[in-house]
């Protein structure tokens, strides 16, 4: 028994942010010594502290009392703590749950977090460890309530462009352009590197437009097989081709009255570019295999991570389609050109992902922000989001990994951007053992785009 050692002196846990006495805690553990240890630590601090030796006793207490937090042992007699946690979440219990256990492995930890645990603590632990975990739970609940109230008060009052995070000069200029362009019916071409947030900008344009109450239909052009994309966009009639056993509407149909977002449009085959141009000019389409033209009322927003003017010069993109799309051309800045937005983005993703993952937020510091702002972020905002998600899963920020990735940029400050991109992609492929699908996922691009780049460089990767 180590409870006396674990229960060493600890300072007051109260903080000015919230009142500990306003919170109630239920301790569920089959070991009497652990229940007593936790009860002694919490009763002077919290308004209500109850204990139970198993899930059955705990359920009876919860039937008549409200608890903000459960401290739940995994290894309980009868129903295990992990099984009961799943049942609680399925039944709608929204309170925080801290799981404790003397026996744990990675699978158990993952199952706990997936099951909705707020934290996972391995026995034996010190008083300050459990108090800090409880404090984080109480603070998160306090902030969630405040956020809910503030969002209701600010709804309809904010002039901000939803989805765009950051207050750098580049982002403020982008917001100004998007607000103005959103009201126009014109076709828009969004240009920017992979991961900069082109779809976020497209959705913002749609939400601020007169079409906001109509559908927004995103299409990832490289993700659709070349032989199917015509049917996906325009639809087909029964018998139009082998396997067409029934008539099917296309994405233009489902976007009628709203916005169709064509992401990575540079990946469209030339033959389909011709058909798309005709639809844009005539505002009519003909489903595959049909003789009947169907009128369409759709605003087109297209996006590309490539220089379409250069693609036109190289003969890979139709010039007339480029001019038809680029009525309004908006460039989304890469993250390295607005590094001052990184703290805002980190806080945004932390708030978003802690809810999705069911984990406690991590502590942020100016030193951390300085490290993040010094990194080049070749994968842009998408890479930063993945970094925050990985950090929350691991329970800490793996900033040393950024240093390793930064070698790509640190050693190539005098290189052209294309060469920096090439080095980074090839190093990522090497890190993934040549697995293109995994490398593409980490880079935030499609496998087709990755294969095309490798072919351009003469690189053959299995």
UniProtKB/TrEMBL annotation:
Pfam families: AAA_lid_14, HTH_8, Response_reg, Sigma54_activat. The keyword ATP-binding applies. InterPro entries: AAA+_ATPase, AAA_lid_NorR, CheY-like_superfamily, Homeodomain-like_sf, HTH_Fis, P-loop_NTPase, Sig_transdc_resp-reg_receiver, Sigma_54_int. The modification 4-aspartylphosphate is found at residue 73. GO terms for biological process: phosphorelay signal transduction system; regulation of DNA-templated transcription. The keyword DNA damage does not apply. Keywords: ATP-binding, DNA-binding, Nucleotide-binding, Phosphoprotein, Transcription, Transcription regulation. Coiled coil: none annotated. Residues 24-138 form the Response regulatory domain. GO terms for molecular function: ATP binding; sequence-specific DNA binding. Residues 164-393 form the Sigma-54 factor interaction domain. This is DNA-binding transcriptional response regulator, NtrC family, contains REC, AAA-type ATPase, and a Fis-type DNA-binding domains.
């Amino acid at each position: 028994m180590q409870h006396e050692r674990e229960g060493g002196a600890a300072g007051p846990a109260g903080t000015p942010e919230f009142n500990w006495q306003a919170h109630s805690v239920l301790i569920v553990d089959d070991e009497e010594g652990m229940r007593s240890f936790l009860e002694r630590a919490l009763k002077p601090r919290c308004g209500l502290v109850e204990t139970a030796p198993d899930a059955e006793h705990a359920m009876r207490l919860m039937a008549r009392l409200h608890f903000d937090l459960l401290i739940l042992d995994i290894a309980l007699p009868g129903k295990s703590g992990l099984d009961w946690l799943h049942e609680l979440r399925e039944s709608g219990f929204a309170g925080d749950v801290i799981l404790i256990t003397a026996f744990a492995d990675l699978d158990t930890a993952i199952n706990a977090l997936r099951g909705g645990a707020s934290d996972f603590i391995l026995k034996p632990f010190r008083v300050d460890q459990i108090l800090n975990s409880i404090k984080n739970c109480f603070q998160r609940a306090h902030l969630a309530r405040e956020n809910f109230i503030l969002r209701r008060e600010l709804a309809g009052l904010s002039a901000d462009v939803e989805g765009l995070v950051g207050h750098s000069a580049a982002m403020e200029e982008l917001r100004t352009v998007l607000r103005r362009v959103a009201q126009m019916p014109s076709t828009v071409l969004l240009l920017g590197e992979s991961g900069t947030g082109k779809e976020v900008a497209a959705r913002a344009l749609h939400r601020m437009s007169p079409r906001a109450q109509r559908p927004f239909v995103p299409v990832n052009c490289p993700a659709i097989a070349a032989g199917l994309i015509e049917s996906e966009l325009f639809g087909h009639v029964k018998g139009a081709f082998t396997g067409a056993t029934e008539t099917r509407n296309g994405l233009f149909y489902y976007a009628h009255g709203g916005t169709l977002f064509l992401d990575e449009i540079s990946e469209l085959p030339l033959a389909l570019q011709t058909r798309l141009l005709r639809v844009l000019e005539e505002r009519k389409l003909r489903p595959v295999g049909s003789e009947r033209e169907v009128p369409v009322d759709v605003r087109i927003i297209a996006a590309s991570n490539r220089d379409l003017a250069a693609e036109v010069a190289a003969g890979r993109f139709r010039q007339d389609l480029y001019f038809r799309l680029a009525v309004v051309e908006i460039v989304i800045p890469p993250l390295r050109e607005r590094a001052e937005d990184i703290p805002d983005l980190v806080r945004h993703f932390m708030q978003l992902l802690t809810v999705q993952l069911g984990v406690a937020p991590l502590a942020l510091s100016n030193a951390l922000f300085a490290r993040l702002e010094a990194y080049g972020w070749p994968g842009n905002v998408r890479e930063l989001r993945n970094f925050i998600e990985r950090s929350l899963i691991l329970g800490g920020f793996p900033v040393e990994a950024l240093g390793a990735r930064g070698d790509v940029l640190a050693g190539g400050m005098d290189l052209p951007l294309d060469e920096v991109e090439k080095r980074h992609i090839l190093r990522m492929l090497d890190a993934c053992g040549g697995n293109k699908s995994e490398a593409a996922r980490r880079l935030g691009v499609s496998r087709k785009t990755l294969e095309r780049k490798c072919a351009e460089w003469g690189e053959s990767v299995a």
